[in-house]
Design brief:
This protein is an alpha/beta fold. 38% of the residues lie in helices and 29% in strands. The protein has a single domain, classed as Rossmann fold (3-Layer(aba) Sandwich), CATH 3.40.50.300. The chain contains nine helices and twelve strands. β11 and β12 form a beta hairpin. The two termini are 28 Å apart.
Length: 248
């Protein structure tokens, strides 16, 4: 599904990714871990097509297409979804209207007819109940006054509606208390299927106690320096990141 080969990226005069190689297959969940400044969020930003990141070398194939040649909206239409580390607040725009617009835009890109209000609300209710979300939450302005857990749960609702083939979750567990982490983790597991794939970017083992990845990668100084199964994350939790400098 996703192939990243020798990816080098700079922001201004700083090299933030220095030769990333990654293969994500259908049905897999990958976790990318590493200390602050390692390049984890930069990788997510490049995949999503965020401006300001210059790819100086390498390629990314997504469903066989050259991802770097596609605009962000074309990437989304192809099935790529990014859950933000810090979801933005948009006062005056209801969550329901935002989600309806986002879904119908994706459908338009895929040459599908838009959902009318009734069909959309039925689908929204189905996904909201899947995630145990109160109806009042989607009636409010997008993320305005939401707690950290509510914002992240809202991201999961958007992911459920858009049904991407590849979801990149950038530190979805950051800022969550134990109860919110449990709810968000349950949502991720409910949306995990044999026909899609996920990349979880995280600092901590605690998310991976709930969502067990197929592969764990350690990203350090712009490179993936080690990969393994879920036990690799447990070692990081136990020993910290100091030992990985010996691998670099």
């Amino acid at each position: 599904m996703l192939t990243i080969a020798d990816l080098h990226v700079s922001v201004g005069d700083k090299n933030v990714l220095k030769g990333i190689n990654l293969q994500v297959n259908v049905g897999e969940v990958h976790a990318i871990m590493g200390p602050n400044g390692a390049g984890k969020s930069s990788l997510a930003a490049v995949l999503a097509g965020k401006a300001g990141y210059e790819v100086t070398k390498g390629r990314i194939l997504f469903h066989g297409q050259h991802l770097l040649q596609l605009a962000p909206e074309a990437r989304a239409a192809l099935g790529l979804f990014l859950a933000f580390q810090y979801p933005v607040e948009i006062p005056g725009v209801s969550t329901t209207n935002f989600l309806k617009t986002a879904l119908n835009q994706i459908r338009k890109q895929r040459d599908l007819p838009p959902l009318d209000a009734v069909a959309f609300l039925e689908r929204l209710k189905e996904k909201r109940e899947l995630l145990h979300m109160d109806h009042a939450l989607v009636q409010r302005s997008l993320n305005e006054g939401f707690s950290g857990g509510e914002k992240k749960r809202n991201e999961m609702l958007q992911m459920a509606l858009l049904d991407p083939s590849l979801a990149i979750l950038d530190e979805t567990d950051s800022g969550l208390d134990i109860d919110a982490l449990t709810v968000v983790s349950q949502a991720i597991n409910q949306l995990r299927r044999a026909t899609n794939a996920m990349v979880l970017i995280t600092h901590y083992q605690r998310l991976l106690d709930h969502v067990v990845p197929d592969v764990v990668h350690i990203l350090y100084d712009g490179k993936i320096i080690q990969s393994g199964d879920a036990t690799l994350a447990k070692r990081l939790e136990k020993e910290g990141y100091a030992w990985i400098t010996q691998l670099h």
